[in-house]
């Protein structure tokens, strides 16, 4: 039969949100959605599995207006269709799905595919496994994790094929029988297993079912190089670092990036188990942003610090999303798998991007997110350690409280051009002149430039705050409002603005530098950024200091 060429790569494009193009795909399966998952409107929804000749995708919902195509048996399994209009979206758990809004049926192929050999004919992709499969079927998949034997006895194995991943559980006799046989990284054909719904508390793989080995189960080792190449090590469902915020707290995702920094292993006492533990902070970067990852215990100890030095590409499979103070981070987990330079498209892409100078493009995002472990100082230490006097600026973090803001100056007239904040002078003509832009303007802006006294338990310092940082310190009162009060000579209002936000403890990132002016060298301290105090992180830091000092 003459067959239409499928649009290879279309599924990946759609999953990345590029839904503008039409694509020719083959329908592999059609199912009526479970009534409980459809909405209260009681409209029947069909779910399609499709292939583009390269990938398969099983989360395609058909727009209900198109249901008649199925009822009239025009759209059926093995139909070749042209997707004319699709929409891409994510479920509440962050899983991709497509909604088919319009399609054209191009061709009906025969029900049996001719290019499969007899032994391949009843192999089904892992993602198609449900308790409603008929007849005998098997999977051909790679074992990628194997548990130890737990009491009862019970053990489990996680399997992957090109379509997805699934857990297989063995109890008692089957545990004794299969635990010694099945090895990680080997490929097996497995048949005669039961299918059961998963309990998501114990199984965080992306499959709604798991397999249970039974006395009639057959597990056959496949030792074939060509098959080996067709089955991945791990099934990644990579979430770009920018999109982590689309996932809920404690959910499990896969990410990939360049290891940019890593701390040493940091000892602390685990509050729940009261045991000595270690953790390690790692920063991962991609094209868009960076994220901090905390690794725990064995995974923290075993982490190779050269990965950060060599800026290595690393993928984390089943890492946990953590949200604290509205900030996203990732946290290791005992079932997490870390792969160095995994053989996937995204890894090659990152390598090319980084080597082509991606590191410099991203530096802004990195400095915003990362604070080095050793950069925390008390106010006393800033003076004692002579920071900023080595001919280069020192950057430190200080946890302190703003006691008061000096009422001299506070605001100045600034250049109205975006990105130029130079002070402008009013000319006799009434225009404002910017020395940097060499231009005269009818109007000027107001910007903050103020000094504030910060205090912690060890001392006080005066710190300069400019523009955004100053506005933040002032409790987000715009500089224009303050300038107006100043011009009106409204002392009471000015003081209320200055006092509004004082006596709040914050983390301040400070730049300390020597500046020489008229032969006098002075230490200048200015605020680069500020954030709320993360008390959990602060507690861990204190424990670390205590253990180091005593
Ligand atoms: Zn200017």
From TrEMBL:
Q: What does this protein do?
A: As part of the heterotrimeric replication protein A complex (RPA/RP-A), binds and stabilizes single-stranded DNA intermediates, that form during DNA replication or upon DNA stress. It prevents their reannealing and in parallel, recruits and activates different proteins and complexes involved in DNA metabolism. Thereby, it plays an essential role both in DNA replication and the cellular response to DNA damage.
Name of the protein in its database record? Replication protein A subunit
Annotated Replication factor-A protein 1 N-terminal domain residues: 6-107
Q: Where is the Replication factor A C-terminal domain?
A: 395-542
Which UniProt keywords are given for this protein, alphabetically ordered? Answer: DNA replication, DNA-binding, Metal-binding, Nucleus, Zinc, Zinc-finger
- Name the Gene Ontology biological process terms: DNA recombination; DNA repair; DNA replication
CC per GO annotation: nucleus
Gene Ontology MF annotations: DNA binding; zinc ion binding
Record-stated family: Belongs to the replication factor A protein 1 family.
Q: Share what the entry says about its subunit structure, partners included.
A: Component of the heterotrimeric canonical replication protein A complex (RPA).
Chief site of localization: nucleus
Q: Which Gene3D superfamilies match?
A: Nucleic acid-binding proteins (2.40.50.140)
PANTHER family noted in UniProt: OS03G0429900 PROTEIN (PTHR47165:SF4)
UniProt subcellular location: Nucleus
Occurrences of domain Replication protein A OB (ranges): 241-338
